[in-house]
Amino acid sequence: MTSNARLRTNVLGVTLAVGSVAAALAPAAAASGSTTEAATPTLADRSPGASAGVLASFEGRRIDLSRDWDGARSCAVVSPEDVRCYVSNEQADAALAAAGLTSNVTGETFDDQCANGWLCLFDLPNFGGRRLIFQDEGWQSLAGYGFQYKTSSWINNQACDDLGGLGDGVGGAIYISGCGARASELGDWDNRAVDVGP
Hints:
The strands form four sheets. A six-stranded antiparallel beta sheet has the order 1-2-14-13-16-11, with no helix packed on it. By secondary structure, it is mainly β. It has helices at about 25-30, 90-100, and strands at about 5-10, 15-20, 20-25, 35-40, 55-60, 60-65, 75-80, 80-85, 120-125, 130-135, 140, 155, 165, 175, 180-185, 195.
């Protein structure tokens, strides 16, 4: 960990950080004492693509997620240009699996509330409400998805060494390790995230 990072807390694989660099410990890394460093992005580092309003496919039509999810409950960001929405998490997970868009990186299912190989954000505590999921690497604004200031819980169902992050737009970020790591509530970070960096 560098001296530039000021860590606030690290609970169940989630690290809250303020500063230019944050370190997050994966469960296995915590046992061995090693850390993974990741730069905390600033607004200039983030992809502006999602801030204008993201169009998603939903029940045979296109919807602008920044305005209204129009009955969708689960949206999968395959890429910033390919967003697919569904009426339920189960329907989304089945469609993603049928399209070959889920991965089982360790041969086991980490979590049944989050598709294998994805980082899942929820707009209510305890993994409730609408779900927005990512697997594309790099920071993306949540505004275009209608999810800015709305994340209340999350699951990282990606590979064990694949960190997921939430940023607040002013240099603060929290990170969560993979392997199904989860946070059912975000404390000071509840409804604070403006972007995601899986």
